[in-house]
Amino acid sequence: MLPPFPDIGTETGLQDDAPLTEIPAWARKGELVLEGSATPPWLDLDAEQEKDDGLIHETPEQRQEALNQSYSQGVQAGIQQARATMEQELREQLHQEIYQHSHEQGQTAGYQAGYDAGLKKSVPEMDQQITLLKQTTEAMQIWQTALQHQQLQELRELVCALTEQVVLQELKLSSETVERSLLSALSALEESSETPVILVHPRDREFVTMICTEHDIKCRVMDDETLSPGGCRVQTSQADIDASLDRRLKLAMSTVREVFTDAG
């Protein structure tokens, strides 16, 4: 702290308006340069006075050291603040990444668990549906086979009925049919001196007698109302050849049924 500026009037005893005739004691110490180039006497203090004035007088080295220390403290404070900020940001980022990763893992695990549970639950239902589908398919195949068989049976009966009607009509109307039946039956007889008996429908007796005469066949023609027109039976003591229309028709129908049986 600087010493108080002396009161000129008090120390010198001069009045404010008295002329200055001599240099005061405080002004004579040191070299007073009125031009103001020298240090004022009240600032030219000795070491003892500097020690007692209560002020801290720093050297340039001390100032530089203080600056360096302050700079170092500022740098350390900045580093700590930056580190704290970075740690906070990294902590938040890490927390976000952990949360996101955990969320994805949880979502994946939940999806897998749900998928496994749904699959486990649906497998028995799928097996049941597959079994039901197989049973339905087998039933359809059985039904289709039965339907085809039934249709085939019905078709066979229809064809047989139509064939029977056509054959009967043809045999009844054709005289050649009667002749073929008679000659076929006579050819089946073994050679014998016995005179065969030919049984025919009364309607065919005259026609059969004419045929036997034309072919010089020795026989006896007799009526048999149980026979259908167009057929005959040839009998001897050793043989009985049925060339009736009914038998020939049964043979024809048997052939037709065999054809349908092979097709089925």
Could you characterize the architecture of this molecule?
This protein is α+β, with helices and mostly antiparallel strands and 264 residues long. Among the domains are: 50 residues, no CATH class; 75 residues, 2-Layer Sandwich (hypothetical protein PF0899 fold), CATH 3.30.2320. 64% of the residues lie in helices and 6% in strands. The chain contains 7 helices and 4 strands; from the N terminus they run αααααβαβββα. A 4-stranded mixed β-sheet has the order 2-1-3-4. Helix 6 links the parallel strand 1 and strand 2. Helix 4 runs antiparallel to helix 7. The chain is rod-shaped, with a radius of gyration of 75 Å. About 7% of the residues have low confidence.
Strand content: 5-15%
Distance between the termini: 138 Å
Compressed to H and E, one letter per element, the order equals: HHHHHEHEEEH
Please work out how many helical segments DSSP would assign.
7
CATH topology of the domain at 174-248: hypothetical protein PF0899 fold
- Quantity of strands, as a count: 4
